[in-house]
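sorry for the late reply, my laptop died twice this morning and i had to redo everyting from scratch. anyway the thing you sent over, i finally got around to it. pasting the sequence first so we're on the same page, its 332 residues, then the predicted structure underneath. double check i copied it right bc i was rushing
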Amino acid sequence: MQKQILSCFTKVFARVVVPLFAALLFSAAAPAQQAWPAKPVRIIVPAAPGGPTDLAVRVLAEKLSLSLGQTVLVDNRAGAGHMIGTEAMARSAADGYTFGAVTTPHVINPALQKKMPYDTLKDLEPVSWLTSLPLVLVVNATVQANSLAELLALARAKPGALSYASAGSGSPVHLAGEMFKSAASLDILHIPYKGAGPAVVDVVGGQVPMMFALPGTARPHIESGKMRPLAITGGRRFKGLPNVPTFTELGMQGMDATLIVGFIVPAKTPAAVIKTLHDTLASVLSSAEVVDRLGTLALDVIATDPERSTMLLRNETELWSKVVKSSGAKAE
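ok and here's the structure:
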């Protein structure tokens, strides 16, 4: 009898008490599992330290660390047209502890590269676009063109005689030049360099007459009188160069080449984590201090929600794909 009672008790314990105890443990642990972030967070930057993207991310990382209450580390993974760092991020655990910064090469690469190690639309999810940056068309000070109209007249009078420098084949500034050629029906020659620095040096020195440049890079040479700005891309004037008209103002449509910086996460990152990260970013980006600090890097804040970010990602991918295909640009 005693054995029967003990056996019955054991069965009841196994069927009722143990599951109940396990459920209580799970419910107690659940809030801790959902409390993101519970440890340091890493931002992968697919560019070298010291550039505009890296500097912008470091401004945001500093403020995110304070807002999230956790250390936010910046991990630079440059190379292969930004694909090395972005692949590392795409292959990271989808738990919110690794996310990444991406720039315009992220939306150019699908059309430019023969083979991609990840799918930009399926393997990664946008959290927010953070900043935008127009490109300014500049000429060497000795070029006989004081306006966009005069440059167009000069280029059309001597087809194939004018050239423009870029940071390399397939770079955003190269494709901006191709966009310009198409929009104005021009015959001008592309001169690729290994990076923006050497290209700027040769335009300042007069070896190449013109280029599309980052405003922050061009501004010192504009102020010194060695470069002359003629027009700027985007839908509105840039506050860092307020006297430079947009291409649209000057009657040229289709010059929508702007550089963007955004944060993305691996696909299947929990929606709650994405929302927390986005909301924290939105708060950081609304700070006057952050806006001013990004402004010193010639960056405008354009914070967007994940849905809007996804739409912009698709739009930008389509825009640059058309330019790559029409120009025949190849990756170096």
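The first strand starts at residue 41 and ends at 45.
thats about all i looked at so far, will dig more tmrw
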